[in-house]
Every structure is written in structure tokens, then in C-alpha cells.
């Protein structure tokens, strides 16, 4: 998986779901369970009865010590979450902050905490098991959705409000995704995956 700027990412949660949808439509796999090898390890995907796709993203790791991020003209306190790739989750402390954030410029993360950079999620809780989220992705910029970022935000929210397990619905600019964290700590991401366009790409020989 490569980001828009050509840099390599360890894992893409939404990309894994879309990849499975393409494999199915091209008749390259059979059945409702598909395993995908990524730089962060194997990802198991399941096609749900309603057509949505669930991917298991392993056990996220949450650092308890807060980390700093500079974004939208101010300094924020966040939490580092690893899901095969690095995330900084910032819980907003007031209504209306999320929509007004200026994410045109890249957030700055402490190199000691994020030596390879990271994705930054700004999260607004809207209920015990519901969030709104905007994300700035490493190597891309602000995007309409980030699967692993959604999992990071939900995992952090469940840890803050409970015992770190259960379900959470996350609304991003691109739609709604659902996260479930099992008793063993494994996180699952569920959402739609639809092919909207087809094209060709020519890769260089070297």
C-alpha cells in the first residue's frame, strides 16, 4: 500500500475492505472469508450477509502517556494508538470544534513519539458508543475516511468510557463505519465497499 505522496504505509483498513470487494468481483477468490498479507501482518476479512465487509485488525496498542500534536494553530494533547500503523487520537473537549478545524496544513507530531510520522484523528464523542471524526493521514492529507484511524478512535473511546471492549459507531465525512473490540482485545472494522470506477495504471520497470 502506498500513500498519495508515494510513501509506503504498513496497513490500510478501508483499502483492505475494498481490495476484498475487487477480488470477489473479479472472481479471484471464493467464499466469504479472505486472508490478506500486509506489512503489518495477516488481515482476515469476512463478507457479511448484508454485503458489508469486516476486517480483523489485531489487537491495538494504546500508550497511556499523553503525546503532543500541533495542529490548526494550537497545541493538543492526544493518545498514541498502534494498529500496525501509528495514530494520534485527540478527543475534543467542546461541541462545534470538529467542524471548524483547519486541517489544510500537516499536523506536527513529536519525532520521539512518532519517528515514522503518524495519522492524526480529531474525535467528537456524540454518545456512549458513537463518535464523529476527522482525520489527517500521513502522506495524504485530510481524507474522507481512514479505516485504521476509525479503529484507533473507537478503541481509545471504549478504553476511556469503559473496559476497552464493545461496539462503537463512527461517522466520518465519507460515511459510517462500525468497530467492535472483543474480550481478547482484537478489533474489527465493518463497513460498505463498492467499486465506483475502473482504470489502468502503468508501473515503471525499475
Question: How many strand units?
Answer: 13
Overall SS class: alpha+beta
Instruction: Give helix and strand order, one letter per element, not per position.
Output: HEEEEEEHEEEEHEEE
- Gross morphology is globular
What is the gyration radius calculated from CA atoms? 17 Å
- Binned strand content: 35-45%
> Counting H and I runs of at least 4 residues, what is the number of helices?
3
Q: Show unreliable segments.
A: none
> What is the helix fraction of residues, given as a range?
10-25%
Biggest sheet record: 13 strands, mixed
Distance between the termini: 17 Å
Give the overall pLDDT as a whole number: 93
Oligomer: single chain
Task: Label this structure with key terms.
single chain; 206 residues; alpha+beta; 3 helices; 16% helix
Give a verbal description of the structure:
This protein is α+β, with helices and mostly antiparallel strands and 206 residues long. The chain has 3 helices and 13 strands, in the order H-E-E-E-E-E-E-H-E-E-E-E-H-E-E-E. The chain has helices at 13-25, 97-100, 147-161; strands spanning 33-38, 41-47, 53-56, 61-71, 74-82, 86-91, 108-109, 119-127, 130-137, 141-143, 166-172, 175-181, 187-191. Strands 1, 2, 3, 4, 5, 6, 7, 8, 9, 10, 11, 12 and 13 form a 13-stranded mixed beta sheet that branches. A hairpin with a 5-residue loop joins strand 12 and strand 13. The two termini are 17 Å apart. The mean pLDDT is 93.
Amino acid at each position: 500500500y502506498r500513500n498519495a505522496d508515494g510513501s509506503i504505509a504498513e496497513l490500510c483498513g478501508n483499502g483492505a475492505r475494498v481490495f476484498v470487494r475487487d477480488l470477489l468481483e473479479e472472481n479471484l477468490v471464493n467464499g466469504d472469508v479472505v486472508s490478506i498479507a500486509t506489512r503489518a501482518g495477516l488481515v482476515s476479512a469476512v463478507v457479511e450477509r448484508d454485503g458489508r465487509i469486516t476486517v480483523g485488525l489485531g489487537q491495538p496498542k494504546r500508550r497511556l502517556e499523553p503525546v503532543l500534536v500541533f495542529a490548526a494553530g494550537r497545541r493538543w494533547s492526544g493518545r498514541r494508538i498502534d494498529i500496525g500503523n501509528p495514530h494520534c487520537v485527540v478527543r475534543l473537549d467542546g461541541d462545534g470544534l470538529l467542524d471548524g478545524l483547519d486541517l489544510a496544513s500537516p499536523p506536527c507530531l513529536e519525532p520521539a513519539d512518532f519517528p515514522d510520522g503518524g495519522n492524526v484523528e480529531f474525535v467528537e464523542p456524540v454518545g456512549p458508543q458513537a463518535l464523529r471524526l476527522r482525520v489527517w493521514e500521513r502522506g495524504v492529507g485530510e481524507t474522507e475516511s481512514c479505516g485504521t484511524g476509525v479503529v484507533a478512535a473507537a478503541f481509545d473511546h471504549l478504553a476511556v468510557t469503559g473496559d476497552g471492549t464493545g461496539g462503537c459507531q463512527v461517522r466520518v465525512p465519507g460515511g459510517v463505519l462500525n468497530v467492535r473490540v472483543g474480550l481478547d482485545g482484537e478489533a474489527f472494522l465493518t463497513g460498505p465497499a463498492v467499486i465506483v470506477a475502473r482504470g489502468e495504471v502503468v508501473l515503471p520497470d525499475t
